[in-house]
Amino acid sequence: MAFKTPLYDEHVRLNGKIVEFGGYLLPVQYPSGVIAEHMAVRTGAGIFDVSHMGEILYKGKDALANLNYVLTNDFTNLKIGRIRYSVMCYEDGGCVDDLIVYRLGEESYLCVVNAGNRVKDAAWMKEHLFGDVEFKDISDDVAQLAIQGPLSGEVLGKYTELPEKYYSFIETTILGKNCMVSQTGYTGEYGFEIYCRKEDVVEIYRELLKDERLVPCGLGARDTLRLEAGMPLYGHEMDETVSPLETGLDFGVKLHKDFIGKEGILNRVNRHRIGIKMIGRGIAREHCDVYKDGELIGHTTSGTHLPYLKGAYAMALVKEDLPAGTKIEVDIRGKRVEGEVTALPFYKREK
Amino acid sequence: MKTPLELKYSKSHEWVKITGEHECEVGLTDYAQDSLGDLVFVNLPEVDQEAVKEQTICDVESVKAVSDVYSPVTGKVSEINEELLDAPEKINEDPYGAWLFKVVDVEDFEGLLSAEEYEKVVEEEAH
Of A20, A207, A256, B6, which residue is least crowded by CB atoms under 10 Å? Predict the structure, then answer.
């Protein structure tokens, strides 16, 4: 059975094409189409329903110690009002999930996790709790919107103050409803995410959409945008068989501290995540074999035609780190098509 | 959704424009392009390639997925619409103008659907 987010009826009303993702019924696109939605975020502003994401609270004297033990990043110097990315690992170094952590107060933190992993994550976190900590999965009470694109600040700024810095947040109100607004996103673009009570989200969503510059965007554009920005997605660039270092998330792994999976991670650095630009005719998708000089070196983890860059790109996990410019071949449905290793991210916004 | 009356259709969502006793043009229907979404890549058959009824002959790709195109008739490919190789979005914009390939030496046009019959197929599929 699939869940509906509080905005389900809005997506249907907007003629969204509904699919199941992470256990939720969500629009993959609206009539405007993936390309138009993608371009709206790169050049204007788009709005996504991301209410399917999971939210988990840690509160108490030992909240910090718990997070530092169960997650790979170090939160010791994370200030109130700031956010930090992390991975959560199994003992053997494989990834349970990736997530972002908000420091809400002196002793309280909010973890935002992938929808499809939420139950598994909560069980894993709970299993490893220690000391004086209160743990709560509040996912079912919280709705989340993402407003992304160069015009997102202008659109959202009509209703609320905005957090000034990337990966920071403020507590505020929109239409008199309590919200948390963070400067975060999964598109590689300037943008914000709003957290509110699920009862309040329909009113906020409808009000925001009165600004015609804001284009409703679906999961299709969310995927092409994150891929263009070189961002990994759980289940593709990482899973329980891949360590965060293998998939290039070194910045989210702090080896100076002790945490679950540290040894496992160190014992397994066999692969590297690379970016590929297709040169020959063809679109590499996920699970295509990658060859260098005729030798199988790995496989693609995501790939499609990227609307802003207007070309076929893929990410791959391969057994050696290859410099940009290296010629490789990708097996696309039985045909070897030429590609070239390209630095990640494929797209980086100008600041 | 448009379904021009003068064309014939296949259950796999290709349209057939009969241009001579043994000749036709083949393209993708409005319903097909709408279901696929923005097309970004087209693989066309080779000229002189054999076309076999109800068998894969080429494919089209949207941002999300690859979809096979089935030949609605048996015959020989005589021409391909090379313009689409650089502009696959023409299939979305004008599905009945953007023919994919032409077939000659067509054995017969039996079993193809009328516009009315095809609309019923689509209706059933949509439910």
Answer: A256
